[in-house]
């Protein structure tokens, strides 16, 4: 009998107990992070429930219209943003919030302030909402400098300074993947209990994968190293098998598959978008943080992604992330290009 697997089956670990266990390893901790996280979890459950009803919303009124009760239907990304802002402010543990949906950062009023800054994409993959394909929420957490007044500089920090990051994927199941800097763990929502249960303990990405994931429709505008890399995936010259292509078009879902199965996810720069498409603070950093924690790598085409120092809250960057060996290959191609 596989005792490890058996123990895992019988030990029902909820996300709350998991985080409390982690907290107890730090006697100085006052539980602020646990409280913040419980509010993030609440936001995820709320959005999950709204996503599950998204198709039905058409029956009672389309987004932007009024439903039969005369209430205005909110677009799912607007609704998700409001849910997370409320959940985070009411935790009493946050001071600065940066959301993809808001042009400016939100500074929490002093009476409700705490020491954490949260950057988030409340609904990632929004083009997939109407066809029922997996979408998600991405978040990263920084801590402000001790005692100081919160300033924008507190979030304009390199990703390596994040103290935690994660995402929740609203797919065939609702899965929350989290790292607080000591490995990566995945929890699946049991809808009947309303609890996230540890289902993917200590996730490690395979060292090399068989899948590449990129929007190949942009190929005509790629730079040399990206084009060469994708060519190598399809027509390897070293006798290995070609990689398979999988591309969902929701970063959360594409990165989740990459984390579990291995391989590489690319959103490169191209002639039309020299900085790529994905946003540094709440897309590139949290996913890069998770990848490194799981044993993979994340690279911008120039440097380790987590070393980037963003100058603006909605800054973008190219990103290549995934299995260690696969990212190593693309790094070599960019290094060779620089030598030219
Ligand atoms: O359609 P494209 O250009 O391939 O872009 C897909 C990417 O855009 C995104 O949908 C952007 O995220 P938002 O939906 O939060 O704007 C990512 O999830 C995804 O990786
Ligand atoms: Mg997004
Ligand atoms: Mg979004």
Description:
This protein has 340 residues and is of the alpha+beta class. It folds into 2 domains: 3-200, 2-Layer Sandwich (Fructose-1,6-Bisphosphatase, Chain A, domain 1); 211-339, D-Maltodextrin-Binding Protein, domain 2 (3-Layer(aba) Sandwich). Helix content is 32%, strand content 21%. A hairpin with a 5-residue loop joins strand 6 (174-179) and strand 7. Helix 2 runs antiparallel to helix 3 (32-52) and helix 3 packs antiparallel against helix 5. The longest helix is centred in the N-terminal third of the chain and has 21 residues, at 32-52. The structure holds 1,6-di-O-phosphono-beta-D-fructofuranose and magnesium ion (MG) (2 copies). One magnesium ion (MG) binds at residues 121, 124, 251, 283. It catalyses: beta-D-fructose 1,6-bisphosphate + H2O = beta-D-fructose 6-phosphate + phosphate. Its main location: cytoplasm. It comes from Olea europaea subsp. europaea.
What's the helix and strand layout?
Layout: H1 3-10, H2 15-24, H3 32-52, H4 57-60, H5 76-90, E1 94-99, E2 106-107, E3 113-124, E4 135-143, E5 164-170, E6 174-179, E7 185-190, E8 195-200, E9 211-213, H6 224-234, E10 244-245, H7 251-261, E11 264-267, H8 280-293, E12 297-299, E13 319-322, H9 324-339
The structure holds 1,6-di-O-phosphono-beta-D-fructofuranose and magnesium ion (2 copies).
Main location: cytoplasm
Subcellular location: Cytoplasm
Catalytic activity: beta-D-fructose 1,6-bisphosphate + H2O = beta-D-fructose 6-phosphate + phosphate
């Amino acid at each position: 009998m596989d005792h490890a697997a058996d123990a895992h089956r019988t030990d029902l670990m909820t996300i709350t107990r998991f985080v409390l266990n982690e907290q107890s390893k730090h006697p100085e901790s006052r539980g602020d992070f646990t409280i913040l996280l419980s509010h993030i979890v609440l936001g995820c459950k709320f959005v999950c429930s709204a996503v599950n009803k998204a198709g039905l919303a058409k029956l009672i009124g389309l987004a932007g219209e009024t439903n039969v009760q005369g209430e205005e239907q909110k677009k799912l990304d607007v609704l998700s943003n409001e849910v997370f802002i409320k959940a985070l402010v009411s935790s009493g543990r946050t001071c600065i919030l940066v959301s993809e949906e808001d042009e400016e950062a939100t500074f929490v009023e002093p009476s409700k302030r705490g020491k954490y800054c949260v950057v988030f994409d409340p609904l990632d993959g929004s083009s997939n909402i109407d066809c029922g394909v997996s979408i998600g929420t991405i978040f990263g957490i920084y801590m402000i400098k001790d005692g100081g007044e919160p300033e924008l500089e507190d979030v304009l920090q390199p990703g390596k300074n994040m103290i935690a990051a994660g995402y929740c994927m609203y797919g065939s199941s609702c899965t929350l993947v989290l790292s607080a800097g000591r490995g990566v763990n995945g929890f699946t929502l049991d809808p009947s209990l309303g609890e996230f249960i540890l289902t993917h303990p200590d996730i490690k990405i395979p060292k090399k994968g068989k899948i590449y994931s990129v929007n190949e429709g942009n190929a005509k505008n790629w730079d040399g190293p990206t084009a060469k890399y994708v060519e190598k995936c399809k027509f390897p010259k070293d006798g290995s098998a070609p990689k398979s292509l999988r591309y969902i078009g929701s970063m959360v879902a594409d990165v989740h598959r990459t984390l579990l199965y291995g391989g590489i996810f690319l959103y490169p720069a191209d002639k039309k978008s020299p900085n790529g498409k994905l946003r540094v603070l709440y897309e590139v950093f949290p996913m890069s943080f998770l990848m490194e924690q799981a044993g993979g790598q994340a690279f911008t085409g120039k440097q380790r992604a987590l070393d980037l120092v963003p100058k603006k809250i909605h800054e973008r960057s190219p990103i290549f992330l995934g299995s260690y060996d696969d990212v190593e290959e693309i790094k070599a191609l960019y290094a060779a290009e620089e030598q030219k």
